[in-house]
């Protein structure tokens, strides 16, 4: 199941759903809409009425990317899906690359579509945005002592067992931090995480949800996790999933 969280993505949801259906015809899609004022939920309902591979999860309001994905993961697991995929609605994650992630998942527990491994790239980003993304991944990798090059990547394929084993109920982070949190939890739990190169394309329609608050949250939480992890190692304590 491909989970696509939406908030004011009425212009984007039809084309992205069509591209997913064409790229992986067997995949089902869950549009998790946060009560978008622009009518995205209604558009998604129309798509679902026309295609039994499309489902819609209507949420009460805008609660953030992390909360939307967690709700989508729970819905998917409850309805028997064994593989759950994160994908943006704006086209920055190309559905045509999804088969590559799914193929890699045959030998892994979590596959990350990475911009910062050989073969990965970005299109139409300003240097300032690239600096924030690269810097955030490097900062997280060093503080948390993990080998992942693109810790903030949002194009991912999970096995159901991975999500069940990382303590989803304890995750409270959002945005950039949500992606870092899940990857780190998977590594701490002993799951096999790999990266495959993808091309990330900046959205052409709508507005980015990135904000200073999201970046600040990530910086503080990662520092807290990294320091806490090192203290636990020095004191010989066993880390909990949410430490």
TrEMBL record:
Please name the SUPFAM superfamilies in this protein's record: Nucleotide-diphospho-sugar transferases
- Would the keyword Transferase turn up in this protein's UniProt record? yes
Domain of life from the UniProt record: Bacteria
| Keyword set, alphabetical order | Glycosyltransferase, Transferase
**What positions does the domain Glycosyltransferase 2-like occupy?**
2-165
Family to which this protein belongs:
Belongs to the glycosyltransferase 2 family.
Listed name of the protein: Polyprenol monophosphomannose synthase
Recorded source organism is Streptomyces asiaticus subsp. ignotus
């Amino acid at each position: 199941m491909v989970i696509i969280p939406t908030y004011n993505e009425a212009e984007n949801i039809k084309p992205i759903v069509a591209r997913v259906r064409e790229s992986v015809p067997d995949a089902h899609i869950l549009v998790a809409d946060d009560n978008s004022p622009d009518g995205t939920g209604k558009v998604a309902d129309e798509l679902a009425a026309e295609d039994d591979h499309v489902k819609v999860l209507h949420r009460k309001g805008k609660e953030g990317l992390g909360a939307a994905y967690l709700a989508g993961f729970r819905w998917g697991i409850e309805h028997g899906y064994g593989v759950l995929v994160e994908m943006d609605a704006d086209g920055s994650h190309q559905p045509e690359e999804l088969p590559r992630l799914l193929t890699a998942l045959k030998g892994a527990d979590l596959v990350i579509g990475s911009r910062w491994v050989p073969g990965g790239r970005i299109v139409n980003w300003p240097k300032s945005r690239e600096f924030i993304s690269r810097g955030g991944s490097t900062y997280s990798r060093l503080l948390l002592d993990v080998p992942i090059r693109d810790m903030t990547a949002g194009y991912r394929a999970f096995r159901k067992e991975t999500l069940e084993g990382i303590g989803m109920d304890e995750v409270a982070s959002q945005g950039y931090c949500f992606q870092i949190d899940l990857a780190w939890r998977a590594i701490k739990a002993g799951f096999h995480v790999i990266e495959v190169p993808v091309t990330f394309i900046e959205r052409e329609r709508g507005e980015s949800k990135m904000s200073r608050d999201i970046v600040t949250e990530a910086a503080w939480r990662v520092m807290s996790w990294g320091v806490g992890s090192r203290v636990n190692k020095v004191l010989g304590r066993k880390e909990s999933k949410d430490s």
